[in-house]
């Protein structure tokens, strides 16, 4: 799991910021931390490398990006890209960070209630929800990458 939880110099516990199953302490110390989900990393009280690049370029850009309204459609696209990246490069983490939603019958009260319960559980666990269609596309892209990898490695008959 992630490391980096710790208290202040007096040994008191940090006030955590919950992000799914990972806790980011308010007073995290400089250092190298492993297994921190991207969302928790960006929710933490530090400045990222990308933010430092923005400040070096134009401090106003940093402030604008930090305070700009969120484009949820763009965020959803980034979630899909992040999920694909995780599926290919961190397959053991995929099911911890993402969940593919089943199809819900939204025409019925029972289907709407099932979806609501599912989404509440996902919010509680901090996993990013992908639609069944997004999951299907990610799996197809993953299979394509794996097939190409096998070809490059010479494992496929020519």
Question: What keyword list fits this structure?
Answer:
158 residues; PDDEXK-like_dom_sf; 2 domains; 4 strands; 7 helices; globular; mainly alpha; Exodeoxyribonuclease 8; two-stranded parallel ribbon; two-stranded antiparallel ribbon; disordered N terminus; 9% strand
What do these coordinates show?
With 158 residues, the protein is mainly α. The protein folds into 2 domains: 16-67, no CATH class; 72-152, no CATH class. The chain contains 7 helices and 4 strands, in the order ββαααααβαβα. It has a two-stranded antiparallel sheet with strand order 1-2. A two-stranded parallel ribbon has the order 3-4. The protein starts with 15 loop residues before the first strand and ends in a 6-residue tail after the last helix. The relative contact order is 0.10. Residues 1-20 have low confidence and may be disordered.
Oligomer: single chain
Percent strand equals 5-15%
Topology pattern, helix = H, strand = E = EEHHHHHEHEH
Identify the overall geometry: globular
The Cα radius of gyration reads 20 Å
What is the count of helical runs?
A: 7
- Give the tally of β-strands: 4
The overall average pLDDT, rounded, is 78
Q: How many structural domains?
A: 2
